Amino acid sequence: MAISITKTKSGLTRKESQIETIRKLAEENSVIGIADLSGISSKAIQGIRTSLRSGEVNATLKVAKNTLKTIALEKLQAKTSKKTVDQFLSHINGSCALIFSNESPFKLQRFLSKNSVPAPAKAGQISPVEVLIPEGVTNLDPGPIISELGSIGLQTRIEKGKIRITKTAKVLSVGDTVSETHAAVLTRLGIQPFSVNLRISQVIEGDEVIDGSILEVDEDQIISDLQQAYMNAMALAVDSRVNYYSEESIPILLGNAVRQAFGLSIESNYLTKDNLNALLVKTKAQADTLKEKISDKDSKIEFKDY
What we know:
Distance between the termini: 154 Å
Structural class: alpha+beta
Mean pLDDT: 84
Strand content: 15-25%
Number of domains: 3
CATH topology of the largest domain: Alpha-Beta Plaits
Oligomer: single chain
Radius of gyration: 37 Å
């Protein structure tokens, strides 16, 4: 029996062409990541691939059989140690894709985390969000589907030969399990209530393999921590017991010194052009106090006739 082998325009078989494409991408990019595709539909993958080409990062997502990915990347040993390559290749298993880029792996992971794509609800899935189905005319014809809509809490009526949902209804709460009916109805209505993000599980950069968890940085928390550390350091630098001089602390220390010198001049009655008004106020207050004491003492003097 003759075996037909499909070849591409380059003369390579389809598998050889895939291997060559992956090898070329590995040579042209400094960062190679393994992206987990578990639970991500092919439509969602296409959406992610588009966002990678048109977003703030420039990256290529490549889906192929794991054996082909492994064969192609084994040739990385020419510029990376065998130990590092073997460590990276050991993570190519299950449903995964390769992502190639010259961006920082942290920037790449941040972009993927912030750019989710719509995803359909699947039976058995735990709902991460509240799902509402809005009122309005659907494209569904009357039939058994009406009872399915009713079973998940939707009120309907027939309008011009189509099913109309007469009232917006919540069909799933956070933590609910998606039933087969939920999944079927949402799909029929064209509603994709959830979202998915591509997550990088491993990255090889240079001669180092980086775990994806290290790339998942909470930027807001880091900024908050840095701000708090700055405030703590500044408070310590300007403490009167420390007085650490730096570009940032000198203005504050000079201000403190001026205020302390001013206070000392007032306390010691040392007259300067800067504290004249303050000393006059102080002197008047002292004079008023003395006057009150003298007046009070005079009122207590008793005059006797001898």
